Amino acid sequence: MSIPGLGQIAPQQPTTSTTRTITLRPFWEWRFEVPRSSSAATTTSATTTAPGNVSVGGGGATVRLTSGAAERDGTELALNRVYTFPRNTQSKLLTYTGATLEVAGAFVDHVAQYPAPEASPQLPVLNLHFALQELRAGVGRGGGDNTNDNGGGGGGGGVPGPRVMICGERDSGKTTVARTLAALATRAGGQPLVGSVDPREGMLALPGTISAAVFGTVMDVEDPAAGFGVSGTPSSGPSAVPVKLPMVYYVGRERVDEDVPLWRDLVGKLGSSARAKFAADEVVREAGLLLDTPAASVAKGDLDILMHAAHEFAVNIVVVIGSVELHAELQRRFENERTLHGEVVTLIFLDKSDGVAERDKDFMKFTREAAIKEYFFGDAKRTLSPFTQSVGFDDVAVFRTPEGSGFYDNKPALERADISAEMSHWTLAVMNASVNDPPEIIRQAPVMGFVAIADVDEDRRRLKVLSPVSGRLGNRPMVWGRWPEPYINLLG
Length: 492
Ligand SMILES: Nc1ncnc2c1ncn2[C@@H]1O[C@H](COP(=O)(O)OP(=O)(O)OP(=O)(O)O)[C@@H](O)[C@H]1O
Hints:
Blueprint (H helix, E strand, L loop, with lengths): L9 E2 L8 E5 L4 E6 L8 E2 L8 E3 L5 E8 L2 E2 L2 E2 L5 E4 L3 E6 L4 E7 L1 E6 L9 H19 L22 E6 L5 H14 L5 E4 L12 E6 L32 E4 L9 H21 L1 H6 L1 E4 L10 H10 L4 E5 L2 H11 L11 E5 L10 H17 L9 E6 L4 E4 L14 E2 L10 E5 L7 H5 L3 E11 L4 E6 L9 E4 L12
Parallel strand pairs: 13-17, 13-18, 14-17, 18-19, 21-26
Antiparallel strand pairs: 1-4, 2-11, 3-10, 3-12, 5-12, 6-9, 6-11, 7-8, 14-15, 15-16, 20-25, 21-22, 23-24, 23-26, 24-25
Helix pairs in contact: 1-2, 3-5
Function: Required for endonucleolytic cleavage during polyadenylation-dependent pre-mRNA 3'-end formation. Polynucleotide 5'-kinase involved in rRNA processing.
Subunit structure: Component of a pre-mRNA cleavage factor complex. Interacts directly with PCF11.
InterPro entries: Clp1, Clp1/Grc3, Clp1_C, Clp1_C_sf, Clp1_N, Clp1_N_sf, CLP1_P, P-loop_NTPase
């Protein structure tokens, strides 16, 4: 885990926390990394553009915008408000017009300086946003009417605004670009549908899911995931920003290739939910879609996955970040394709920002654990009180994909799971289906929420289950996925 550009890092003794002032010129970025533990913040180095710095203090970094304007992935900071970025946050604050920041706490940081806006990796993203705004305005003016719609399920109300799929290799900055475009569209008054078909990082939901939600309100700047985290969803407590209501489907796997058929089916479900949303809501239809995708590379043969997502969401703009090879191959594949509205598919290449941080296994594990804890217990800004209930083994319906079930196996989609101590500390998805529905229906049902198994008492045949809200558990089928594995005892 490191901030690119910081080079080799040399150990340094912790110092007392100090407040520093950072002055940013237009298009400069303040890149920072809040470590998992405060001792890890004791490193620094120099770069060709600006010295790296270290600040050491409590459990996070605090930032105050004292003049100018700055934003995190498209969401603006309010002047003079103190923002706290929690541990394990890697991100940047950027200004288009210049800004002064007051920073303190535990972090490693670096200012990326650019001699002119043209040298900044953000300028093409901003230009892309303006181009998308033009297309959205065209829909608003009636340019997106139904003349090209061949009726292939596009729903009522004509052709939606731009449907943009963002692709790239691992750690190329896909999610950051998706989030930035969503925030910029929202700031301009739009309400785009934002989706993620990458189960590795749940968007507005726990890892192991794919989801989509309308973004019509401001995102949470302090969220480690900058507005894509679980803190942006409805909960039993107050929220820092207006919540989003995601449609969520449960893959229960980290990688798509671990269960391609299920992922394909669920992407189909999410795609049809998106079409239904466009048909029902004119404002969302005009703003279109921003779709984040799993890391893909030509060498690994991931193109079919991207093509499937593109078809299901009727994508008409494909943004490829960083990989010339992926761009060329997708261009070739899309050449003769038309969307269900009869549109050609436009490919756009963006350079990868040198600021994108590589996240190692420990970073991702911490992120997952933090998301699960936050889902049940809230965060520093809001404390949630989950319910703990004790239920008999026979009073709940838990399903699981049979071992080895996958692409080439002819096994049932789901089977009743044997409840045992092995289930302890797993997080299960509660499905919006009936316990008597066929397995295939249950597997493809939308997720209502999650519960965690706090304890399994095999002798008494009872489970202790943690849930965010009260309610009888036996009414809904629960699915026990294969990932993320339990790392933590939530009540421990
Ligand atoms: N310019 C930047 N400066 C500092 N950090 C950045 C910058 N751009 C992106 N990051 C951070 O780098 C990390 C990786 O970025 P991001 O999640 O956008 O990549 P990704 O391609 O979606 O990753 P994955 O392949 O795992 O899905 C994130 O923590 C993000 O906040």
